[in-house]
Design brief:
By secondary structure, this protein is α/β, with parallel strands linked by helices. It has a single domain, classed as Rossmann fold (3-Layer(aba) Sandwich). A 5-stranded parallel β-sheet has the order 2-1-3-4-5, with helices on both faces. Helix 1 packs parallel to helix 5. The relative contact order is 0.22.
Length: 179
């Protein structure tokens, strides 16, 4: 069955290690015949949630006009969402956290999705990355019918292109291909 796949790359570096893994997931999904799109968050304007509460009022939405509205609408329409982040100080990137926070106004509409996580880090210890994964899971806990399907770990990579030749490249491709 053809799926709509949305890959959210929160790397601040185009063609950085986590962004490269996104490209492999995208390639696999497209080769399998899925409608797949990658959004590079760095290219988008996404303001921080101000906590104004306007979006919690009946019939009202977030008063900020930026690219978050379009991205969140794509999340609503997707069947599969890939959340991707490089790890900074054992946390997800600011770009990803900012987008997740902005989902407040529409999170009830982001339902019945499959999720994959892709993370990269200089650290070699997979256990040390659990804080980032738990951050993603905290988001999923707020979404009705969210199903975690897998995590791809690009560990031991920091500088540009250190992901080249890494087994995570194949894992990302195969995950996309086997949706």
């Amino acid at each position: 069955m053809k799926k709509r796949v949305l890959i959210l790359s929160s790397s601040p570096r185009r063609h950085g290690n986590s962004d490269t893994l996104c490209d492999e997931f995208l390639r696999g999904a497209r080769e399998a015949g899925h409608d797949a799109e990658k959004i590079f968050l760095r290219d988008r304007t996404i303001y921080y949630c101000t906590g104004c509460g306007t979006c919690t009022e009946p019939g009202r939405s977030c008063p900020q006009y930026d690219d978050a509205r379009e991205i969140i609408e794509k999340m609503v329409e997707a069947d599969v969402i890939v959340l991707t982040s490089p790890v900074y100080f054992y946390a997800m990137s600011a770009q990803m956290k900012t987008l997740i926070d902005r989902c407040c106004s529409e999170y009830l509409r982001i339902s019945n999705k499959e999720f994959y996580f892709i993370i990269t880090a200089a650290e070699q210890d997979k256990g040390a990355m659990e804080r980032v994964i738990e951050g993603f899971r905290g988001f999923l806990d707020c979404l009705e019918g969210a199903r975690e399907r897998g995590t791809i770990y690009g560990l031991g990579v920091w500088k540009m292109h250190e992901i080249d030749g890494h087994p995570a490249l194949r894992e990302a491709y195969e995950a996309g291909r086997n949706l």
